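FYI - complex with adenosine-5'-diphosphate, inputs then prediction.
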Amino acid sequence: MTVSVAIDLALDRLFTYSVPGELAKKLLVGQLLRVPFGGRIARGFALAVEENAPAAVPAVPEERDLFGNVIAPKKKPAKAAGFSLKPILAIEDESPFFSPELLKLVRWIAAYTASPIETTLKAALPAAVLKPSIKPKELLYVEPVVPTPADARLTPHQKALLADFARVGGGWLQQLVREFKTSPSTVHALAEKGVVTVAPRVSRRDPLAGRRVMPTKPLTLNPRQRQALEVIDAATKPVLLHGVTGSGKTEIYLQAIARVLERGQGAIVLVPEISLTPQTVRRFAGRFGEQVAVLHSALSDGERYDEWHRIRTGEARVVVGPRSAIFAPVRRLGLIVVDEEHDPSYKQDETPRYHARDLAVVRARFEGAGVVLGSATPSLESWRNAQTGKYALASVPNRVAGRTLPAVHLVNMEQEAEKTGHPPIFSSPLLDALHLRLERGEQTILFLNRRGFSRVLECPDCGWTAQCPDCSVPYTYHRADDCLRCHVCGGWTRLPAQCPDCQNREFNYTGIGTQRAEAALKRCFPSARVLRMDADSTARKFSHDDILSAFRAGKADVLLGTQMIAKGLDFPNVTLVGVLNADTSLHRPDPRASERTYQLLAQVSGRAGRAEKPGEVYLQTFAPDAPAIAAAASDQGFGAFAAQELAARHQAYLPPYCRLATLVFRSKIDELAASWADLYARSLASWAKQFNAGKAGEPFRVSEAVEAPLAKAEGWFRYQIVVRAPSTRDIVAAVKWIEEARPAPKDLRIVFDVDAQNLA
Ligand code: ADP
Ligand code: ZN
Ligand code: ZN
């Protein structure tokens, strides 16, 4: 018997070992093994087991030539098969870390995103699970012996204590001691008399410990919700659940999951990292209690270890987490829910560059599970799949209980600027609306997609701006610590005393950040209670939740924040939403800029008027005619925007009408990055010529090599090529062909992103 092993190094190939007889009986794919490797001992995952001694050892992945034919691997296996294969040394853990289905998914990702298999395996497993130092936590547990031995001689005090323990059925020693005001030695004395046992037991490190979770019952669904639930339940293909904000999508998910659990299956719920707030988690834990496992980036290693093992053993059957939770080892997977499926945080921006929404569809297919993609503003990829019938569509066009969507007003900031000579932070219509809310005791959310005090420090005389030397972006002034910070690399510097170019000592601050908006707001409304929420104010572990809880409890009139507050929040008393600059994401060099802008505005607007009182939204803009902005303020809804945007994408040959990949060339040596980008662009163009021969409309298109929009980051120069083609496989084949011929030199990194979500 032989086994192919992915060693814990990014070598992107598998190594074949023989399996000694005594291990052969226990060997399973997905197990973590110990193997000899180049004179040391390495760990690796068993990917495939061959019963018979191999005639051919396929130690390298299949490769294809220019025309898609399979060619013989160039890298030969080191030794002829059957001869000197080394035996594996041990099986580290008998229960596999990956089920065969998950391994299939991992291999699919590695091939699709052109990533090394080992890196992909690693991304699919929480690091805490593989750390030898992380172990289950054991505490002493006390259990009354039933029935109480007849010959036990207890003092009246001991008898009373035993009765207390019996009533609660035992518990953790520490807790019982606290609850019944006794001491550990008293409990140990009971154990000596044989009436209780005290023994170590694995204690779960519960991420929700100490947080109140109120159990909830299913709500009675309205007809549209019920219809959607039936579509989900009966579907044989992915379902796109398009429901406006506040239409009760979460309740639909909860009831769909309940049905899955009744059938003895499990479910995964993906939510954007940013909306993985305790509020969201509580909604699932409130319905499914202990069966819910949470995977969150803020968990401790111990919590993550325990949650992962609870999932693997089947103790937890509902997993709620961000994109990496798509790899949760849920048994008998019945349903995957992707909430806010359009959210950019589902795309992983390091190798393997997978998109969790797409993986949800692939994993569901592999495991015969259902999949629901939910959003008020679906991605155009998913929307088109629903239009062509590849996905089923379930729509909930109205808010629950007859509540209306907010009235959205555009404020033309060009005109506002004419009134005062410069654009104000708060326009007069927004100020009036705010004033009204303060009078009525209602709450307001103000949204500004930029943290810090002011964006840029600028010399009014010569136009010099303070810029990070390692990144091609201006510094942002942070008032709290009176310094300039780079939002790309995190570096900082003090304020200059004078302009380095012209020695002028006065500076202008241009642009508005959350801190400056907060200061301006306090000047306009000195008595208003304002909470600010951005990356600076939420650095502590629970401050995110604390701020939201305080706002919910009515301890503030205004919540002012970045996109952190755009999604998922449900505050009944919020009747006004103001977007201070609706245009921030509009002018980015990104094919999805318009889509993102619309999504963001619709999501923020959706925070207003979610309960009985109707809501109102003010969008401050310099571009009231831009399609995304105009659509966000019209009552035509998402469908109208999508139709218009899809037509534009079709015209321009952009996703979803093609696949768009990027290659980014990074080097500390500017010339090196530039010349290699150019070389690749030319090679790809010649590939494209061959590919397109005889085909209509140039389906394979390669851009010139250009400076990336972020031309320099952390000292690395960046150049970029954009490739478009009918399928990702076509693009991967072309890039692999060039990489094979022209492997990158030492000082150059080439980052290949097969479904690039932005061109940064
Ligand atoms: P969405 O996720 O679509 O934005 P939510 O699921 O958050 O909407 O629902 C908005 C509010 O409506 C929540 O407070 C929820 O409890 C409530 N809700 C959902 N469905 C119903 C229903 N059928 N009847 C009454 N209230 C509901
Ligand atoms: Zn100057
Ligand atoms: Zn920087």
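Residues 55-71, 76-82 have pLDDT under 50 and may be disordered. Residues 2-130 form a domain with the GIY-YIG endonuclease fold (CATH 3.40.1440.60).
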